[in-house]
Write a structure and sequence with these properties.
It is a single chain. The protein is of the alpha/beta class and 403 residues long. Helix content is 50%, strand content 13%. The protein starts with 10 loop residues before the first strand and ends with a helix. The model has no long low-confidence stretch (mean pLDDT 93). This is Glucosyl-3-phosphoglycerate synthase. GO terms for molecular function: glycosyltransferase activity. It is an enzyme of class 2 (transferase). Keywords: Glycosyltransferase, Transferase.
Length: 403
């Protein structure tokens, strides 16, 4: 059972009563006449062959209120693209597959490259960005939700709970973030959020004092969740980060673009499990090592935009403060896990904290060395001003691929 506290600067919508999914869906069907809704699924072709995607599609096929499902497909050749279209053919809703590696969408990408507006890095950020472009172009819906495609504990209540706050006619939210706890197989998971993001934000508050942005970021119960939803009016001005700071960067963009009164978070799952990244202690380009680096730089960039002066001495102080704060957090998580009957390797937790403390300092040095580094993909408002027909090009390419 969730608590009911509202202890941050954004609204928290709990799961207080366990309303049935059917009850929520019945209301969403009613609300969909005024607020049509879409679902965005960014995926790799390999995920279609994994254990999660089949059950996800079976659950999605039962949803009665969606106007459209937009599937972004990465790392697929032509044969695999056709296999993906057959894989999703069991969906009764209107759906399209964006073949991001196909000739037609690559042609659109080349046109964007000519004017310096194409995404420069492959990955989830690029996939989501093109899918949002198609969402704007299709003009089918007024709200869109997004979730990962490797969720092993999926059920269709996830999109229902993500979209409900945006679709309800008496609510006033423009952006909704999903949250849950990460535990599976008798273990407490979610290491990057637990051991990096939470203690780093607390340490930043100690070093820098109270900042509205840090209060905002500290309000999210699971800032790294890949599940969120937004209304169409905010999509146009949203910049999508291309690196592994996607979730933190998106929240930062919402802080810039929206009043906190129009942002909420919602409890979307009693338990949540998906694939786990390795720590990659000796490889700064992969796993949790790179994720921690990109997240730290995303926070430093946003703080600089807010007027915070970041120096080498400040970073050294931050590292020391983070390290002590994170070790205290490990104590609490260990005790929480023991009381809940979960396993938690305390030695590994503290070793991960040691790695993250080094990553924070290295990420800060990278920021100071290259303060002009810009991992954000340009928003669609700017892209459309440079190429007014770009959305028509995307729709034409997608429709031709799916014909």
């Amino acid at each position: 059972m969730a608590d009911f506290s509202q202890n941050g600067v954004i609204g928290t919508l709990h799961n207080l009563r366990n309303r049935s999914t059917e009850e929520l869906e019945a209301e969403l069907v009613e609300y969909s006449t005024e607020t049509p809704m879409s679902l965005l699924l960014p995926c790799l072709y390999s995920e279609l062959e994994g254990p999660a995607m089949g059950p996800i599609v079976e659950e999605l096929a039962k949803i009665p209120y969606l106007s459209e499902i937009i599937i972004g497909l990465d790392r697929a050749n032509e044969t695999q693209f056709e296999a993906a279209r057959k894989f999703f053919a069991k969906l009764p809703q209107n759906f399209v597959v964006l073949w991001n590696d196909g000739t037609r969408l690559r042609h659109v990408d080349a046109a964007l490259q000519e004017v310096g507006l194409a995404p420069t890095e492959p990955g989830k950020g690029r996939n989501v960005w093109y899918c949002l472009g198609y969402f704007l172009a299709s003009q089918t819906s007024k709200a869109v939700a997004l979730h990962d495609c490797d969720i092993l504990t999926y059920d269709r209540s996830i999109p229902a709970r993500l979209l409900y706050p945006l679709a309800h006619p008496r609510f006033n939210y423009q952006f909704c973030k999903g949250y849950y706890y990460r535990a599976a197989g008798g273990q407490l998971n979610g290491r990057v959020f637990r051991l990096l993001v939470i203690p780093l934000i607390r340490a930043l508050k100690q070093v820098l004092g109270r900042l509205e942005y840090l209060d905002y970021m500290g309000s999210f119960r699971y800032a790294l969740s890949g599940e969120f939803s937004m209304r169409s009016e905010v999509v146009q001005s949203l910049r999508i980060p291309a690196d592994w700071g996607l979730e933190i960067g998106t929240l930062s963009e919402m802080f810039r673009n929206c009043s906190t009164q129009r942002i909420c978070q919602v409890d979307i799952a009693d338990a949540y499990d998906h694939k786990h990244q390795p720590v990659s202690e000796d490889n700064r380009t992969g796993g949790l090592h790179r994720m921690a680096n990109d997240i730290s730089k995303a926070l430093f960039r946003k703080l600089a935009v807010e007027g915070v002066v970041i120096t080498s001495s400040m970073l050294r102080t931050l590292k020391a403060c983070y390290y002590r704060t994170a070790l205290d957090v490990v104590d609490h998580y260990h005790n929480d896990a023991v009381m809940s009957g979960l396993d938690l390797d305390r030695h590994q937790e503290e070793a991960t904290v040691e790695l993250f403390s080094r990553v924070i300092l290295a990420a800060g040095d990278e920021f100071l060395t290259r303060p002009d580094e810009a991992p954000f993909i340009h928003n669609w408002a700017r892209v459309r001003s440079a190429l007014p027909d770009v959305l028509d090009q995307i729709v034409g390419a997608v429709q031709a691929d799916n014909a």
